[in-house]
Amino acid sequence: MSITIQNISKSFKDVIAVNNISFDVKEGELFGLIGPDGAGKTTLFRILTTLLFADEGTATVADYDVVKDYKSIRNHVGYMPGKFSLYQDLTVEENLEFFATIFGTTIEENYDLIKDIYIQIEPFKKRRAGKLSGGMKQKLALCCALIHKPKVLFLDEPTTGVDPVSRKEFWEMLKRLQQKGITMLVSTPYMDEAALCDRIALIQDGQILKIDTPQEIVKHFPKKIYAVSADNMYKLLLTLKEYSHCYSVYPFGEFMHYADKRDDFNTTELALFLNGKGLNNSSIQPTKTTIEDTFMELAK
User: Fold this and answer.
1) What pTM does this model have?
2) Contact between 296 and 250 (Cβ < 8 Å)
């Protein structure tokens, strides 16, 4: 295994950030840690990258113990924190050279690893990092995390605050890096990104809710999902919650995702109920279950 985590816990005074977490990440796997802000993702990442001690439990990264072998781990992992943390007054080129020097290597030595990413920011290599766009900062940070050819790459919410096009490009880059044998642990609050991972762990309030492939996670939801809309969406949410047969309902984009308690659910009956409550132009259509649906179910 590339990463092993056994019964890791961490608290900050009265707040339990990570609560008895255990899972493994296989060599060469793209593993996603999926959950909202405050779920414990960053705390776990800081423990695994030797920046924080766990209160309980053990963990290894690339076969090194996170406490006993912390120096070795730092030489064999790349870490891209959620907040841009490179030197803003240094240029793109200077930042990359600096990190290469720290790890006793050069840009030329490992250029093949970062080439596909670096050529996108090379036209701006003389620009200070602080003057780059969000997407360009992201690519520079990834280059700096890769320049020493790490065995394991940690990416803590790498696409937060980045435009959709840059998000898509970033995940395409990760897939290409995976083909080069690098193990990756990625955290994200975006449920749509979970489907791009080999396996995912859903995390909430410091606890793992479920670990499996995205396809198997979706199968966990026990009911059929319907996309419901009407003229007044806020009133629709409140009305669906009042419906006696409602199993679950919550906003999902331009619709409400609704599940009924009954196996023989009749959409006509619900449409009449909504109409009787003054909700006009209602639409009730079957829709695919998503990872977010399953997360909401498990989080209950």
Assistant:
1) 0.89
2) yes
